[in-house]
Amino acid sequence: MKKLLFTLVILASTFSFAQTVRFEGIIQDDTKAPLEMANVMAMNQATKAMDAYAITNEKGKFLLNLKTNATYTIKLSYLGMQNKEITVTTQSENITQNITMESGGIELQGVEIVREMPVSIKGDTIVYNSDSFTTGTERKLEDVLKKLPGVEVDDEGQVKVEGKAVTKLMVEGKDFFDGDTKLGVKNIPADAIDKVQVLRNYNENSIMKGVENNQDNLAMNIKLKEGKKNFWFGDMTAGIGVGHDDERYVVAPKAFYYSPKYSINVMANSNNVGQQAFTIQDYFRFAGGFRNIMGKGGGSINVGSNSLGISFFQDNRVKEIESHFGATNFSYNPSKSWSLSGFAIATSTLVDTETASTVNILQPNSTDISSTEVRDDTGSQKNNLGLFKLSTTYKPTSKFQLDYDILTRISAQRENNELQRQVFNYISGIDTDESVLTSKKQDPVNINQNLSFYYTPTEKHVFAFESQHLYQNEDPLYNANLEFQPFDFFGYNQTQNRNDITQSRFIKTNKLDSRLDYYYVLTPKTNLNFTLANSYVYQSLNSSIFQRLDDGSINNLNAAENNNDASYRFNDTYLGFHIKWLTGKFTFTPGVTLHRFDLKNTQLGTDVNQDIFRLLPDFNMIYQIKKSESLTYNFGLTNNFTNINNYALGTIFNSYSSLFSGNRDLTNSIMQSHSLNYQKFNMFNFENFGANLSYTRTVDAIKSRALFEGVNQIGAPINSPFGDENFSASGRYGRSFSKYYKANLSASVNWSKFYNIQVNPINNAENVVDTESFTQNYRLSASTNFKNLPNLELGYSYSVNQYPNDNFYTDSPTAKLDYFFLKSFSFLAEYEFFHYYNKAKTVDQEYDFLSASLTYQKTKASHWEYKVAATNLLNTTALNDDNFSQFSTRNSQYRVQPRYIIFSMKYNL
């Protein structure tokens, strides 16, 4: 049977290639110079269809596969050249012909061919024609993008083009939720899309475009079909579970309106089938358009997030999840010089979890295990999150721009866990078995404001001022109820049946960053940049611990060691100088910054001050080998400072098995970083290749000094006298073949070596723990994109996690089938298989997921759409993962949602 299938494939391929001939040549200008990225298209005069298209390479070469015995109109366009058409008649032999284009075209010429071309180039813009790649099964922007050559979309909705991340998404030139790609690719209807524009070397501020390096900046703009402009469009979906004992539902309305003057987007989603439209990870990732204005200075402070470690979960990979999401986004232009925009996002999730895990604590510098915790954990979560932003831009002339933004985050998070744990202490020989109850509560508020202006009085002088203020108010509350109290708190009552202990913390942060840049343009290829900047941080931390006794009364643990009343002030003032110059194909940007760091922490009635001066160099080099091929090198020396959590001396009750106290004498770490990035994208054959190397070495890194009593840890931060190192390498290769095939290959490796101090609980001797980890990830995929045949995507992933005491492996083949048939039906099926095991095969598990859906829409113009969808058809019950920390390894298995079958109806506006 396999031989028969192989023979049929060979015969089909031979027949296919036997019916075509090659038409190739070179496109050149009237001086015989080759034209790179000229657009070439072949229109069949008999069928009026476009049979082939091409974009010339750096040598001006093009190649078209045409049908035999046919007559074609060959259309050509190139920015700055006159459009050209020639007639070619094919027979059975290949044709070679060079074509000369005449100068004199204006910018608007070439519009007609660009509109018809599946892919075209216009300056720094790549234009994809959506209808040239869609087959009818697409429902959202994500489905369209995955079929475009050179474009990738990951599971988190992040988009890459030519291997570079898209940092801003727009619709009709207007930011979609401040450019967030996930909300766009998961919600914008596929049938509304006319063109996808990729804007390379993008800078939204035209004043700064000539003086900043923008080679890594990519934006994407979605052009709507004519019938979608100045009209409301979108869809409304409602579905119910079929054949379930409990009720299952999904409701998801979406509406969009775009006009030249204003735009409105409204989206909502409510379901209990594992479809999270906006996750907790998205909430913390969502920057709202704010950038780190101090990032190029060489000084950095992490103000910290006093999260209680509330777990993050992904989609339906939990036992039970119910989510509700609502969002709106608007833009309005009161005048040509003034624009307003903003958004509001609110989400609520209810999550139930069930996890079984094994944690092994390692002996210092050994693969031997000192203690093991085996734990069964059931939990519940409730997360209410809100994001609100308002922005305005005033640009009366091309020489001046004023921006203001305010972003507010509010949340209310709750988590309760009930667990049973067994602890095996192989050093003392004492084993325990107990139940533990924990609860976490936090309601943080975060307000971020930005004010900036840009002014260029003449072409040679550019001024830029940026200022950001962050206000952060956090109030984590943690409670643990244990059978055995592993820690000795001064004033603790040891006579109770249960150990019920709570810690409350209140942390306030104010951070003000201000930066003034002056650019002096010496020549069109050289400019000088002078910087004056200041970063100021003030933090306060108050914490207290109390014990709830069996009779309900409170025992306040008032000893100084159990409480915190601390403040921390950080100030970084620096002067910077950079010079940027272009010579040939190279762009060099060396620079240096002179810093004065002033630190003070106050607690227990005393101050500790530090005054530090640093001269920090940085360097950037870009080698533009060709228009679509570049090599970039970056070097930086960064002083990293910590926050108040690591300075506060009082006990922090991190968890029922972990205590932490700070070190007020900590100083900064110094990180040396090198990175080398290579990118190549060939529009001639839609081939893209990228590789990246990165190395960092950190001295005086803030690390842990840990004492383990079994699996219970008492830790404190120290400045490590050893150098931590990290090396990573990644590569990817992708190519499209013959319009219908697409393949991708990627690989990444990461090696790290770091040091910590582990205290021997028997003699209190300090052991330097030297830890190495090595991870590898490989991915291969291939897909088809036929118009009238089923389309298949096959993939295979392999990962290796090498830890000090064990190695874990995951094999994961995947398959996806989509088919549009009978002009009305769309069938989609996705399959994932996982084989998870360790080196000794003491862990060896297999599980898989299958989902499928069938959609009916009478015609593309029909408003109603009907769908039957099933998730987890194989009814897989659990998943596995592993992770590694500085002193331990962990292997976990967690329960997932069962099989769901949903019938839904959608009305397209």
Concise structural overview:
By secondary structure, this protein is mostly beta strands. The protein contains five helices and 52 strands. A hairpin with a 6-residue loop joins strand 44 and strand 45.
Show the helix and strand layout.
Blueprint: H1 2-18, E1 20-28, E2 39-44, E3 50-55, E4 61-67, E5 71-77, E6 84-89, E7 95-96, E8 99-100, H2 111-116, E9 119-122, E10 125-129, H3 141-145, E11 151-153, E12 159-161, E13 164-171, E14 174-175, H4 181-187, E15 193-200, E16 218-224, E17 232-241, E18 249-258, E19 262-271, H5 280-285, E20 299-301, E21 320-335, E22 338-362, E23 369-397, E24 400-425, E25 431-442, E26 445-458, E27 461-474, E28 477-482, E29 499-523, E30 526-548, E31 554-557, E32 564-583, E33 586-603, E34 606-626, E35 629-641, E36 652-655, E37 658-660, E38 669-682, E39 687-699, E40 702-709, E41 712-719, E42 724-737, E43 741-759, E44 766-784, E45 791-802, E46 807-821, E47 825-838, E48 844-856, E49 864-871, E50 878-884, E51 888-895, E52 900-908
Parallel strand pairs: 1-7, 1-8, 13-16, 20-35, 37-41, 40-43
Antiparallel strand pairs: 1-4, 2-3, 2-5, 5-6, 9-10, 10-15, 11-12, 12-13, 13-14, 15-16, 17-18, 17-52, 18-19, 19-21, 21-22, 22-23, 22-51, 23-24, 24-25, 24-26, 25-28, 26-27, 27-29, 28-29, 29-30, 30-31, 30-32, 32-33, 33-34, 34-35, 35-38, 36-37, 38-39, 39-42, 40-41, 42-43, 43-44, 44-45, 45-46, 46-47, ...
Radius of gyration computed on alpha carbons: 30 Å
Helix fraction, binned, reads under 10%
Tell me what portion of residues adopts beta-strand conformation.
over 45%
Outline the low-pLDDT stretches: 1-18, 106-114
Number of strands: 52
Q: Indicate the overall shape.
A: globular
Secondary structure category: mainly beta
Q: Please give the count of helices.
A: 5
- Mean pLDDT, rounded to whole units? 90
Largest sheet: 36 strands, mixed
Distance between the termini: 49 Å
